[in-house]
Amino acid sequence: MEIHEKVKGLLSMDITAYEIEKQTGISRPTIMNMRKVGYNFLNMSYGTAVNLAKYYDTLNEGGLIFIDQGGFISFSLAFDNYVKSIKSDNSNVKTKELRALQSVIGKLGDIALKDIDLLQQLYEVYKQSLAKEKEERVDPIDK
Questions:
Q1: pTM over the 0.85 mark
Q2: What is the C-alpha to C-alpha distance for residues 11 and 31, in angstroms, rounded to an integer?
Q3: What superkingdom heads the lineage (predicted)?
């Protein structure tokens, strides 16, 4: 997908200009101007386009838990942010058991990132689960 297509895709999402500004550093007035019908995307600076396209990519990897970068496996930014939010957000947690579970989930994330063998095993389980899901969704007529 080309950069300008990613930018247009991001701007068409149901995300506030404030949130885009907060994540990219691009000002709200600029974002609101870009959302107007007839905006000429050729007037956009390359730096703005790259920042917005990167944010689009980040949002669209949201369904991914792992990123395999040719032998180097890590958690996706979306998953990493999710684990961090679980560790730090106690506002909605009503019981001590759930608060303890938050701590455990946070610690598991930290341990997995430090242990490449464990991370690899988790990645294999993840891939197998996705493959199994895909097999189960195949229409029996197609077999």
A1: no
A2: 8
A3: Bacteria
In whole angstroms, give the CA distance from residue 94 to residue 75.
28
Tell me the average pLDDT of the chain.
Answer: 80
- The sign of the torsion formed by the CA atoms of 79, 85, 87, 91 equals negative
Residue entry with tokens 């979306």:
78
Helix axes 116-137, 96-114, angle to 10 degrees: 110
Cα angle, residue 136 at apex, residues 133 and 139 outer, rounded to 5°:
135
Rg from Cα positions in the chain: 20
How far apart (Å, rounded) are the C-alpha atoms in residues 15 and 124?
33
pLDDT of residue 21: 93
Partners of 66 in beta bridges: 75
Chain centre to alpha carbon of residue 138: 27
Tell which wins on pLDDT, 51 or 102: 51
